[in-house]
Hints:
Layout: E1 3-6, H1 12-22, E2 26-31, E3 36-42, E4 45-51, H2 60-66, H3 72-85, H4 89-95, H5 101-117, E5 126-131, E6 145-146, H6 147-167, E7 174-177, H7 192-200, H8 203-209, H9 218-226, H10 233-240, H11 244-256, E8 260-263, H12 266-269, H13 275-307, H14 326-351, H15 359-363, E9 381-384, E10 390-393
Antiparallel strand pairs: 1-5, 2-3, 2-5, 3-4, 4-6, 7-8, 9-10
Helix pairs in contact: 1-6, 6-11, 7-9, 9-11, 13-14
Protein name: Response regulator
Keywords: Membrane, Transmembrane, Transmembrane helix
Pfam families: DUF4388
Amino acid sequence: MALTGTLKDFGIADILQLIGQQQKTGVLYLKSKDQDVQVFIRDGNIVRAESVTRKKKDLLGNMLVSAELITPQQLESALEIQKRTLKRLGDVLTSTGAISAEKLKQMMRLQVTESLYGLFSWKAGDYEFKQEDSVQIDQDDLAPLRAESVLMEGFRMVDEWPHLRKKLSNEATTFEKLKELPPQKAQEKEDDFDASFDDAFSEEKKDENKGEFKSIGSTERRVYSLIGPGRDVRKLVDLSCLGEFETWKALVNLLNLDYIRALPPSGLSSLSSSARGGDLLVRLGGVLARAVVTLLVIAALGFVASRLRPDTWDLQGASASSYSDPAAQRLVSRAQQVRIQAALEVFRLEKGNLPERLDSLVEVGLLRNEDLRYPWRDDYYYRRTSDRQFILLPPLR
Length: 397
């Protein structure tokens, strides 16, 4: 089966579904700007995923050091042995007793699943599937994953990520414990690390918590136990060994249930001993932005006034109906559009994104109602195309 093309025409979900339904065996090659991933498939099941262009921090040895499962010295020693013996790094680490075989296998599985589920965030790229009967299931590979399960998990992540990012927007955020977690249930597993890791990739666990952000399970307990001074979101992701998505979700669960409190990043709180100082800085920035934009608008309107004949229009009390010269209307309209654009930019700086409607500029006091149609009778045409881009046009004449 020859399958090749771009992800814009045929998405990763469609590709995996097609291969899974036909129970094909081979390698799926995916490439984007700076990423190159290979997915190995046997009888429609995913048995391995490798990132050819994996970043240094995502290499297995560095992941183990970041998770504090081995020390930098142990990794350096293992790499030296690997050079001499040509053994796999994992085999060297287990043979020297630096890490247990089970913990190593869990981290290898995490490395694979992070590469695999990361594909669902790709917006563009090329793909090619090559049938290769030589793909085999190795005992060191992760247990084969059904394509349907991968699709369900990938869609779940895509669906829930925006909610997580909205609640927890900065990776440099640290946390403070507010109260203890409820007693652990007797049926929960004794090994917190193994239980948390298994729950993070268990379909039963995902179905239980899907979209709720309310349950306290093994993943939440694992993340809660790791919270401490100086440990931000990035560090907790490394230490938990649960993956980025599961760690973020556990943190949001704990925040929603008031077991922990988010602390502002040190860069924002350094000017003040409390979060109020950061809020004041934001408010002052908004006021300053308004002042600068207002001066620019006044200058622009002054330039327009100097170019127009004073006997054709009156800025003090003229209505849209007093403009008899269409050229004058268009000239004034250009200046008015500059003012609206400036107000939109101030709104974006303060709120984080552009408004859905121009009326929102009036509601926050940036413009008046008449500013949205001056010098015309009808409103300006406005459409937001993204958080930072928009279309603004005068009304159709």
